[in-house]
User: What shape does this take?
Amino acid sequence: MRLKKRKAFSLVELMLVMAVIMTLISLGIFTYYIVKENQKVGMAVDQLQIIRNGMESLKVIDPNSNKTIAMLVESKIFPPEMKKGSNLVNPWKGLITIKERPSNLAVNPFYNVSFYDVPKSSCIDLVNRSKILYKRVESSDGKLVVNSKVKNVVDFCQELSPESAIVFSNFNEGNGAFDTSVSVSKSVSNSVSTSISNSISSSISNSISTSISSSVSLSNSISTSNSVSNSISNSISNSISRSVSNSISASNSVSVSNSISSSISNSVSTSVSISNSNAINNAIDPNLTNQSMYYVSDGGTDGIEEWMTYKTTNGNCTLEYYQYAPPNSVLLSLPRINRTQMQNIINDRTYVLQSGYSWGSGPLKCASRATYCDLGDYATAGIGNQFTISKTLNNAMVYQELTNYFLRSDNLNSIVASFRTAWNSWHSIAARMVWSCSTGERSSFVLDNGNGQTKYFIGNNLVARY
Assistant: This one.
């Protein structure tokens, strides 16, 4: 029986088979690349998380970001793959830098984390996945800033130059510090002059009057307007706060005059700030400001309790002190405080509550200026406009501002000393000062009646003793 000859593959069939094989190989390589890039993005987000956690933990020791960064770099929290010699590197072998972000705050908590050499193919995923950690993302050349829109993220990554790094910052609009896209040079004597990119000049003297072409008026409650003509004349003591990029800071009673020459860049609207963190670089919300209250409650034998409420876009934050009075210097410079009203309250205990249980004279009565009055089980009175609130202010911002403010060395020393004084006088009081927000954030200073020490808690966790 004769065997049939097997027909060989034709050239076309061989070419089809080869095409299928090459397609499968290409798909495999492409899939492998995508998986690897996705893994690198995940590693980069983990690196950002390590940096953020480290910075937040070390702020308890010193809230100044430049000192916190130095401690972080010297720590051993970074995994080996994140280090190359003395440098930090990202999964694409580009440099990671951590630097202080310039701000007008006396204690600056803001910092930038820069990732170099991130490929465009990974940029969009990295930016989107990093938003849970850092709200502000921008390019290192300052030309590009990401907002919340998806299209903007795509445009940001497409327009990012090869030389620019992706910068992740804990700074966010409304934090009470000004952005620093414009540099400011300032000289201080009896008069201070400042020029900002050929557009803003300011002079401060013992008595200042200013005309502003598109004009600005500032006083204790600050208002900023593009088309208001005002002249400002105030007295300034010799203490004028240090100058910082993009802002002018003057202590306590402030008078600022701006003269706008030809034009002001879009990146700068009137850059003026108050040294007590009262600076706001966006519009004030009159409703939230009106609802931001000071309260005093007189419970008789329980003593007097006072608290203040910041009303924000997503709830409220409260500062409460009980059987204890914080130093006047601390109260008068609270973030965003209405200093004049706070001074009136300190000077006159009947400023809001005219007669309480422990007053010992006449019926319970709220003062005529009180905007809240409850004479039930406890005599409680309150007044609004205690703080100046911006339209973008949220609980997280207020909580961070208060934490940084109270942990600043001069304030912390004053608070600890005042707790010790209270303990020396009474020994058994339940003195405490608590700042907390309706979204769950809470910190407190509590007097240890056993030894007169001040205990610092974050939530229910004891963090430090002073």
Notes: The longest helix spans residues 11-58. The radius of gyration is 29 Å. DSSP finds nine helices and 23 strands in the chain. Residues 233 and 407 are 34 Å apart (CA to CA).
